[in-house]
């Protein structure tokens, strides 16, 4: 027979299960005598039988969930053995579930990561809670804490399991709320019900759904031009509420910027600092507008743009510029004052006072500046010019701005004065005095006259010519004897001069320049002919015949120092060349006669004696003082006769009466004095002229 009992689990030890004796209808004493035994199919002895009472009791704690798990019905099978006679009874004890286990989640905390752009209605399963109880005591429902974004959906399976799901009902926005904290409660159907909770932490994963935002729509900065490289212009600040790469911002210059601007400014892509990397020139641009973009690193990237306006402040870094609008580097020296030489345009690329320019020229030059209007000047002559005084000017035009400190620029204008024929040639000497030895060679240069003309080129090309100016002979034409080289001024003799014919020659030399209207000048040339010893003395008395012998008679009684005769000679030369000396070179008796050195008088030096010869031959030589000296010889024969004195006295009377000897002597003396005086005066004048 089979007996069935039902007991709830978790009964205490000794709890009553059933009465075997009663249920079998057997006397208790009989069961005790029959050696009643209880055998269990399991390893554990959950039950025991009191043989005295026949009551089955719980001997160990019974956990239905441990014994049967999730089976809806749980049984423990016992075998009851009785001896005399041997009988077996099967006892089936149903273990009834009690609500002794609350639902249990696998973890007290659940973490979910949900993309913020997850679509509405998206489901996110949560690991279900486990409740080992069965029937109504097992898990019955879930409850989700109140929130704005999620609802709970419980999915039931055919096996009775319930699985919770979070359903997205409202779009997530990580930038508004990055984390959501929910509580999921699992509740069974026991009475009273038991429950458990798990905390759900939802991390909203960022999506690149926000673009970077600058803290200002535009930036402004002010820099002075020529700021050094690396100067900070501005530091940009852009933020992106996204996170991670989606919020990681990189700065760059927009492609809308010109290549020239990119060479001047650079931006740090990490910090957003814009710095100067090129030359800032106010004169090229006063304002720079830089287009900047900020990009995040999301996929796809999102970007934002802003502009940076950089104003450049001018500094006085540009010197004035001098531009020649019109300029003539050559100027006629006869240009009147006020003649425009150059038109000058000045400019300064700076602004304000730094761009205002003043011009001037040195005050010591014959030029001045006239301001025509703003930024234009005219360079004028201020006085008369003279090329012969200064032929070339370097006019420095100084242009200075009004900056602080001022900058200036100097431009040199080379101005050459063009010559006009305004100067007549000038001889080096007002007159020339020339000493020329007679018998000069044909073509010999007597003198070189030299003139200078301070004009230039054609106006200074000189030509010389000889003009008749008269001389010792008014009818003498100098061009007959002289010629002049037209360019060198060398005066040459066409014929040899003869002092005995011409002692002095005077003429004018005219010089003319090569100007279109030639200018002329003259100088006077004095030519003094210098005597040469080219004439031998000529004996005038006594006149000798062809045999060059003259006879004289004297009385034997002639007493010394009686004058026998006088030799008179004349030399056509002058000066020392005409100074004559008389010498007795040979005589029959050298001691009887003597000849006066200068006068040529022949006298007897002693009384005649009977032993003296009756005829005496005397050789008298007349010599001049030239170099080399020239001479003439005359031979006299003195006859000693008784009638000699009468004849000699008659000769003396004739000579005395005729006055021949005194006249000739006087002529010679006067000529010598005159010639010597003229020579001395000429030499003195020449020496003074040379000094």
From TrEMBL:
Subcellular location: Cell membrane
Gene3D superfamilies according to UniProt: Cadherins
Cadherin domain mapped to chain residues: 6-105, 106-214, 215-322, 323-427, 428-539, 546-664
Record-linked Pfam families: Cadherin, Cadherin_2
MF annotations from Gene Ontology: calcium ion binding
Keywords, in A-Z order: Calcium, Cell adhesion, Cell membrane, Glycoprotein, Membrane, Repeat, Signal, Transmembrane, Transmembrane helix
Gene Ontology biological process terms from the UniProt entry: homophilic cell adhesion via plasma membrane adhesion molecules
Transmembrane segments: 664-686
Topological relation to the membrane, as annotated: Single-pass type I membrane protein
InterPro entries in UniProt: Cadherin-like_dom, Cadherin-like_sf, Cadherin_CS, Cadherin_N, Protocadherin/Cadherin-CA
Residue ranges of coiled coil: none
Cellular component annotations (GO), alphabetically ordered: plasma membrane
Name this polypeptide is given: Protocadherin gamma-C3
Gene that this polypeptide is encoded by: Pcdhgc5_1
């Amino acid at each position: 027979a089979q007996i069935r009992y039902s007991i709830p689990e978790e009964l205490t030890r000794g709890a009553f299960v059933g009465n075997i004796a009663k249920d079998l209808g057997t006397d208790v004493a009989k069961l005790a005598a029959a050696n009643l035994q209880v055998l269990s199919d399991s390893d554990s002895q959950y039950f025991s039988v009191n043989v005295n009472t026949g009551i089955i009791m719980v001997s160990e704690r019974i956990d239905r969930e441990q014994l049967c798990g999730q089976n809806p019905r749980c049984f423990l099978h016992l075998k009851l053995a009785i001896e005399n006679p041997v009988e077996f009874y099967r006892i089936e004890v149903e273990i009834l579930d009690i609500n002794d286990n609350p639902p249990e989640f696998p973890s007290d905390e659940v973490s979910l990561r949900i993309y913020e752009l997850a679509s509405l209605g998206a489901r996110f399963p949560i690991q279900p809670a486990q409740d080992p109880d069965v029937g109504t005591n097992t898990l019955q429902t879930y409850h989700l804490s109140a929130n704005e974004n999620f609802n709970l959906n419980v999915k039931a399976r055919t096996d009775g399991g319930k699985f919770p799901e979070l359903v997205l009902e409202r779009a997530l926005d990580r930038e508004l709320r990055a984390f959501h904290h929910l509580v999921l409660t699992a509740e069974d159907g026991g009475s009273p019900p038991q429950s458990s909770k798990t905390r759900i932490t939802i991390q909203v994963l960022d999506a690149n759904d926000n673009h970077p935002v600058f803290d200002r729509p535009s930036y402004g900065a002010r820099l002075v031009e020529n700021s050094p490289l690396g100067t900070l212009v501005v530091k940009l600040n852009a933020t992106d509420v996204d996170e991670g790469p989606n919020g990681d911002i990189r700065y760059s210059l927009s492609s809308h910027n010109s290549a020239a601007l990119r060479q001047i400014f650079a931006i740090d892509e990490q910090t957003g600092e814009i710095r100067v990397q090129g030359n800032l020139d106010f004169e090229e641009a006063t304002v720079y507008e830089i287009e900047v973009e900020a990009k995040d690193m999301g996929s796809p990237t999102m970007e934002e743009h802003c502009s940076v306006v950089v104003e450049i402040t001018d500094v006085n870094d540009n010197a004035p510029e001098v531009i020649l609008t019109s300029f003539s580097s050559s100027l006629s020296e006869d240009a009147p004052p006020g003649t425009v030489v150059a038109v000058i345009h000045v400019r300064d690329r700076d602004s304000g006072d730094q761009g205002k320019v003043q011009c001037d020229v040195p005050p010591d030059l014959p030029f001045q500046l006239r301001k025509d209007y703003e930024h234009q000047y005219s360079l004028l002559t201020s006085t008369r010019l003279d090329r012969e005084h200064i032929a070339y000017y370097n006019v420095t035009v100084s242009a200075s701005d009004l900056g602080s400190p001022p900058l200036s620029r100097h431009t040199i204008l080379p101005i050459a004065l063009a010559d006009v024929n305004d100067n007549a040639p000038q001889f080096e000497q007002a007159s020339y005095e020339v000493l020329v030895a007679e018998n000069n060679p044909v073509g010999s240069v007597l003198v070189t006259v030299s003139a200078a003309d301070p004009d230039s080129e054609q106006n200074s090309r000189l030509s010389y010519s000889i003009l008749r100016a008269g001389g010792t002979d008014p009818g003498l034409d100098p061009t007959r004897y002289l010629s002049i080289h037209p360019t060198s001024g060398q005066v040459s003799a066409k014929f040899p001069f003869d002092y005995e014919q011409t002692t002095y020659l005077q003429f004018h030399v005219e010089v003319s320049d090569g100007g279109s209207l030639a200018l002329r000048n003259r100088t006077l040339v004095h030519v003094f002919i210098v005597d040469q010893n080219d004439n031998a003395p000529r004996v005038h008395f006594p006149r000798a015949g062809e045999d060059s012998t003259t006879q004289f008679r004297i009385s034997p009684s002639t007493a010394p120092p009686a004058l026998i005769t006088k030799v008179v000679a004349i030399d056509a030369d002058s000066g020392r060349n005409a100074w004559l000396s008389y010498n007795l070179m040979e005589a029959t008796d050298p001691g009887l006669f003597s000849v006066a050195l200068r006068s040529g008088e022949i006298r007897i030096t002693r009384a005649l004696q009977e032993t003296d010869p009756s005829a005496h031959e005397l050789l008298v030589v007349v010599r001049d003082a030239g170099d080399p000296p020239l001479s003439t010889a005359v031979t006299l024969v003195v006859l000693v006769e008784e009638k000699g004195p009468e004849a000699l006295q008659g000769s003396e009377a004739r000579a005395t009466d005729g006055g021949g000897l005194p006249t000739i002597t006087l002529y010679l003396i006067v000529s010598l004095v005159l010639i010597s005086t003229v020579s001395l005066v000429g030499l003195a004048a020449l020496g003074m002229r040379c000094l």
